[in-house]
């Protein structure tokens, strides 16, 4: 069995190449590494080891660490937009959309850590700009509802207020600062917080 024999490569490597899915496997490994140790500790070499591929594979797909984290951020914004849009399709309740944001952040910690740190990424990358704009437009749906209720035209302020609320709650919870009881349901608490201020 030679080094060029597909059967001699690690399972993750063989599976990635077989399915044409190596980039996806590398992104998944990156998110896992970020959740474990933070974005600062991620390296392309460790990423290759986690995915069971050659050291050159991550660089081939992402160029450098900033390119990798840009791809993580793009994926995160796309997932966030999908989650918010799916919620808007079910309801026009701003509280539920806020809960969807919080739920996304708490269940996609690796993405969330990178998405709002422009210094980690190629911040002007076209795919990142587009994904960020798509997620922002989903958030603006809540601003439209809030401004209609308040009877004013300041959509931007409403968007910032709504985003600050749900993003702040998510960040505090991820950092352990809220100190919710062990049996507390973060979704339920987030719903109460958003409803309290959206009355």
UniProtKB/TrEMBL annotation:
One of its GO terms (molecular function) is DNA-binding transcription factor activity. The keyword Transcription applies. InterPro entries: Homeodomain-like_sf, HTH-type_TetR-like_transc_reg, HTH_TetR, MT1864/Rv1816-like_C, Tet_transcr_reg_TetR-rel_C_sf. PROSITE patterns: HTH_TETR_2. Residues 20-80 form the HTH tetR-type domain. Keywords: DNA-binding, Transcription, Transcription regulation. Residues 43-62 bind DNA. This is TetR family transcriptional regulator. The lineage of its organism: Bacteria, Bacillati, Actinomycetota, Actinomycetes, Kitasatosporales.
